Amino acid sequence: MTKEKAYKILSKIGKWIIVGLVAFVILVPVYWILISSITPAGELFKSPIDYLPDHPTLDSYSFLIKNVGLFSKIGNTLVIVGSTLIISTVICILGAYAFARFMNKSIQMAFAFIVATMLIPEIVMARSLYEFMRDVHLYDTYPGLIILYISAVIPFTILILTNFVKEIPISLEEAAAIDGATFLQVIFYVVLPLMKPAVATICIINFISCLNNFFTPLYYSSNIQVLSVAIVELPLRDNMYSVPWDLVSAMGWIILAPIIVFVAVFEKQIMEGIMAGGVKS
To answer: What would you report as the CA-atom Rg of the chain, rounded to the nearest whole angstrom?
Structure first.
């Protein structure tokens, strides 16, 4: 065996070892949440540890449905997150095109201001924004929460999509215009199809961000509950650990499951979005 061949084999083995370690670090906590959610509360802390539950049960999920109003929280989450994704995506596609194609000093300042808002912690504006939402009667309402969610995802989405649009050759738009395409036709039939990988990637990132958003629904709502804040409503049990880890794990898995499915379904689009830099002008 030559040194070059041996080096290639060792290189492949090293890569697989690294991949295995990374997968182990990422997947073990997810697996632990899953088995904890189907393990009876009395068996969670027994020794030695069972890596497969002896008596798997769905009692935790049943408890969440009957006593915590799980379905209503899922419905609220779907309404708020779904509306946020649709509205923010439409706004940001048009905004990104405008920032990429019509840059002057005023527009550059507006772009910089929007991106700079990502640097402001939510807690800094919490008090004033809370009073504003209450004064305009948007506190604890679906429109109010949707507006807050949209405002949270717009800066990052605008930044990513604007940089992507800049990489699309403007000659394609000019050719479409020469063929008689209107401004909107150029956007929806020329630019938007090329933006699909980036849009899909952004939607996935925003979906995960919205689903994990804890502060906004907790602070700006009292009656409208989503999945991310439902964990604070779980009843405590009278034991030495106090926290009902079986219910916490079940709620955690309910939040994780759609994210896993979403990423698995759109894996191809995610990779295309990551490699979007291959589009050259």
So the answer is: 24
Alpha carbon separation from 266 to 80, 193, 202, 213 (Å, rounded): 21, 16, 11, 21
Q: Residue 41 carries which DSSP code? A: G
**Rounded to whole angstroms, how far apart are CA atoms 90 and 235?**
40
Structure token digits, residue 210: 């919205």
Opening angle at CA 48, ends 46 and 49, nearest 5: 75
Domains of the chain and any CATH numbers: 69-278 (1.10.3720.10)
Burial class (CB in 10 A: 0-12, 13-18, 19+), 183: exposed
Q: What is the pLDDT of residues 180-213, one digit of tens each?
A: 888 888 888 888 888 888 888 888 889 888 988 8
Structure tokens at 185: 């036709």
Closest CA to 116 of 88, 149, 154, 164: 154
Given this model, what pLDDT does residue 174 score? Answer: 85
pLDDT band for position 142 (50/70/90)? very high
Give the pTM.
0.80
Candidates 76, 30, 63; CA nearest to 211 is 76
**Contact present, 230 and 238 (Cβ < 8 Å):** no
Provide the pLDDT for residue 241: 54
d(C-alpha 236, C-alpha 8), whole Å: 55
Please give the structure tokens belonging to residue 213. Answer: 């958003």
Average pLDDT over residues 226-253: 75
Q: How far is CA 221 from CA 151, 214, 234, in A?
A: 16, 11, 18
